[in-house]
Amino acid sequence: MTSTMPAEQNLIDSFLRLDRMPHIWCPGCGIGPSVTCFIKAIQRSGLDPDKTAVVSGIGCSGRVAGYVKLDSFHTTHGRALPFATGLKLGNPELNVVVFSGDGDLLAIGGNHLIHAARRNMDITVICINNFNYGMTGGQVGPTTPVDARSTTSPYGNFEEPFNIPHLVAASGATYVARWTVLHPRQLERSIAEAMSKPGFSFIEVIAPCPALYGRMNKEAQGLDTLHSYQERSVLRNGADTKDLAITFKGPIVVGKFIDMERPTFGDHCKQLIERIGNKEGR
Amino acid sequence: MKLWRKPFDQAEMAAKPSKVLIDEVRCKGCGYCAEFCPLGVLVMSEDLNPKGYALPKVADEHECLGCGLCVTLCPEFAIQLVPSGDGS
Amino acid sequence: MSDNSVLCGTFFMNGDVACAEGAISAGCRFFAGYPITPATEIAERMAERQPKVGGTYIQMEDELGSMNAVLGASWAGVKAMTATSGPGFTLMMENLGLGVMLETPCVVVDVQRAAPSTGLPTLPAQGDMMQARWGSHGSYEIIALVPSSPQELFDLTVAAFNLSETYRVPVLVMSDEAVGHMSEKVVIPRLAPDQLSYRRRPNVAPEEYLPYKADGDLVPPMAIAGEGYRFHVTGLTHDEKGYPAMTAEAQDKLVRRLVDKIRLNKKDIIKYEEIAVEDAEIVVCAYGITARIARLAVEQARENGIRAGLLRFITVWPFPEERIGELARQVNALLVPELNYGQIVYEVERCAAGKAKTTLLPHMGGSVHHPETILRAIEEAAQ
Known about the structure:
The structure holds three protein chains of three kinds. By secondary structure, chain B is α+β, with helices and mostly antiparallel strands. Chain B has helices spanning 32-36, 69-73, and strands at residues 18-22, 42-48, 54-58, 79-83. Chain B is built from two helices and four strands, in the order βαββαβ. Chain C is 37% helix and 21% strand. In chain C, helix 1 (15-26) packs across helix 2 and helix 3 (63-75) packs parallel to helix 5. The interface between A and B is medium-sized, with 37 and 31 residues.
């Protein structure tokens, strides 16, 4: 039986800007499920939504900021992380979450990514990897697998893509995980863990892009891509990040790979102020 | 279902028989809910919504145990589960 | 956080350092920057002083990161600043535009050096003045202040913070290497809380708050993150709710307000200093280090019997169009010495509207004008 929604008791709707629905994402897009996992993770983690801020870049994934009913900032391409850095350092009580896509975070935003990880900024990054630049029509990106087609690799991509967890781990992230949208329970749990954990937490979400990347690579239906996740994904918690590269048709290793502790940038700042701060007035 | 030991998260994962509500306006007919429901509660129907997308429908209302996978997988936030406990 | 560490007294201070202290006195507790000659000393001073006043110094990976970190900190409610020179200023342009679009109070200091490109990193110029006005894409207005001394670097940095908070716009302090690197007496007062501005806060409940519904002065009250307002802001053209609005009507409404909030309030913003202008026949229009040299030339000309005067721009943007228009009707000649090949002279000429002859006295930078050059130009104009 199908019917329209009674609005009151719906957890997901209570976190959405209903006056902006329907959203712009294509049928079968993986961003919607990622947002649902995020919303459920907020509830699971017990964090205060009023203190949770979302910062996003530009792209389809970047539109997340506009749809969630939290303090949210839709910034410029690749610059969500430094904005989030300033936001968090300006008010350390905030739970700052960055939502962006693979192009935004790994290409134009690449420099900011490795430095935010290096500094162990206390931020959670949810990187929705659909293997292309979606918003602009499906161009090749830094995560597009070799041989895949896109509008700017019409003969097949020959550039090696980034192994994102490896890059982020090498840069110093203290929590690194990867899930596909077909692992929604693990994804929700990972996001909750990441938000609750101090330090730079990075979650790569493998998501379908049926209208563009999928269509250009023989997965025109979102279901085709999800079926391929069923076949290709391999759960290996704690795997060595160097083994996590994704090829065109090869396995997609998912799991939680890094979960360690080290002081955050904010911790150091706080200690510095305590140590150096003017003693006369205290 | 016969279990050989008591699962640690049994309380959290207890079956919650539910009514599946689908927002016909939001749905874009991707088929994720029907495909991945573990109990086959939802199937794609012949009905189209005003935008021309095929809608899912509930095949057997009594089967839904409220696992919530459809809610989470739906890219349109179009599904809601209402527990059909005592006195539904 | 102790205010005892905020300076007060008389100092012999380097310009860049005075700028950093001006920011701290104004309440700046967040600095994000990147080393670049000749602004590095501002970053170094901030690195040393911010922990002492309970603030944060972060050295970002580049100037793009610096500009964005400053915006983020401002949205967390903290007064924030960055400092750079030409090459970094260029890198900051896109996100300066984001700051304008989101209406974010913050201060950006450009200690100008000879350009284009890498130019002469350790030597002065004034070649970024038009870029300050037009550097980011699209139509917008911005406020730019130009100091002529370390004392003014202190004072104008304080003023920059106040202006940015009042008008919710990034404010530029267009310094130059000469002023930034010279050391002079700087008097630092104890600033009272009512001398420092802070953005107007919302006075309605979160459910009723519209992030971009402006008050009568065209400036909207500003919520900050973490207070339960659950607002959304975007660099896309937006409506009063802050939501993206993809229509020409929304574009018209928004762009007009962003520009008009500066233009219609310019009487409260524009500042200049006039010396011997009342009966002048020739007025030299200058700013920054060049204005100090021009003053010498003007005084010398007066001693030689020429009725010369000096108009020193303190705000270059918004430009004092009306005053230039008035002066042009009074004098015979307007001389514009600048450390570039012509930038502000075009504004002067435009506003003079042909009523007075406007002449550029260019110097490409790398050093400063010799007072003789300006004096000779005054004498020539007097004939």
